[in-house]
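Is nicotinamide-adenine-dinucleotide placement plausible here? Inputs below.
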Amino acid sequence: MSEIFKGRVAIVGMGYIGLPTAVAIATRGIDVIGVDINPATVAALSRGEAPFVEPDLAVGVSGAVAMGRLSATTEMPEADAFIIAVPTPFNSDKSADLSCVEAAASQIAPMLRPGNIVILESTCPPGTTERIRKWIADLRPDLKTPVDGENRADLFFAHCPERVLPGRIMIEMITNDRVVGGLTPQCAEKAASIYRLFAQGEILLTDAASAEMAKLVENAYRDVNIAFSNEISLISESLHIDVWEVIRLANRHPRVNVLNPGPGVGGHCIPVDPWFIVSAAPELSRLIRTAREVNDHRPHHVAGQVVEKAKRFKSPTVACLGLTFKANVDDIRESPAIEVVSLIAQSMPDLSILVSDPYVSTLPKLLGNFANLHLESAHQAVERADIVVLLVEHEAFKTIKHTRLGGKVVYDTRGAWH
Ligand SMILES: NC(=O)c1ccc[n+]([C@@H]2O[C@H](COP(=O)([O-])OP(=O)(O)OC[C@H]3O[C@@H](n4cnc5c(N)ncnc54)[C@H](O)[C@@H]3O)[C@@H](O)[C@H]2O)c1
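Reply from A.M.:
I modeled the complex. Tokens:
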């Protein structure tokens, strides 16, 4: 019989990953304490409010808090299990910045008692779970940690990466298969007992480094495939061949699935995580590095194309449709659309640029200082533009009537109007 966890869980980092996990566990009748360094986040949670928007999260938070199962604090509490879900950005040299993970580990260390488990959920380079063990072992020499298969340890350590899709987090957290990697098999089994509380997908037990690497590989896989389609797009453009037609035809092969090209790759996972593989094995990661470079170059290419088109007009107006990093969400983190607009505005200070996005009500910081750039309704922007650039395929843009684009230069970077 598989063990089911009993005890109290502390989750460190109440963001897009930590908070939905807290709700999923608390809803199964387990006491969960959410820990965050941001007092505003803790205050919102203490009122039973979700500090950010994600479908079905608000009702989950208010229910769990009202039932007395979920509470929040800025101080690390005692618990039976500690789950770390803090940010892992990259440094200027693209190596992983583990300062938040290290800070969380050092805050957890004084609270640990024999039998406790520490689970890393943040996306990290291979070997990070082992580094957490070492940091904690240095701070707590009184507690035995599982070194090299040792089975009589006081503490347990595991990595359980997250693969949810923003916008569907509350559903996918429950339904996705779950990779659970322990420093020892006992660690993996103990961590699995927590995920069995709420996960309906299969729980796949493995070692910690394999789990860490599997998560990075998932995002590098997406990045490499997107880079392939972006490169096909570049080549087709130079040969005056319609890339959308090429992909439509190629994808009729039963074993081919070329993704759609676009203006670049955004969000805070796919543009970041492949670099963790590159920095772990720089000499061996030629394809993964090149894919990153191809995708990072895309906004420059798209902006260059727009500038070339604009040069054909005397005093042109350009409508740029879409600012978010993908369609039908309000998330602008690492958005290539914003980079495209900023590059166009820098290259042509006399160009009039009208920007429109149904999910963005004020211009993002990077675009705020250009005098030639204004936020407009899609209707107005298209109406007044000589050149219309589609950067994000929001539903609201897909339904723009072709007749309204008549007589204008149209640059559809997403193939939505094809
Ligand atoms: N968001 C996603 O879709 C997603 C998907 C898979 C994996 N991940 C990974 O999960 C991790 C967390 O991402 P996120 O999107 O939840 O981040 P987030 O920025 O939404 O939330 C992180 C939270 O951690 C808090 N924090 C930082 N340092 C802390 C500390 N020492 N103690 C307590 N709280 C602290 C911050 O205040 C913030 O509220 C990252 O490694 C990310 O790569 C995210």
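Short version: The chain has a mean pLDDT of 96.
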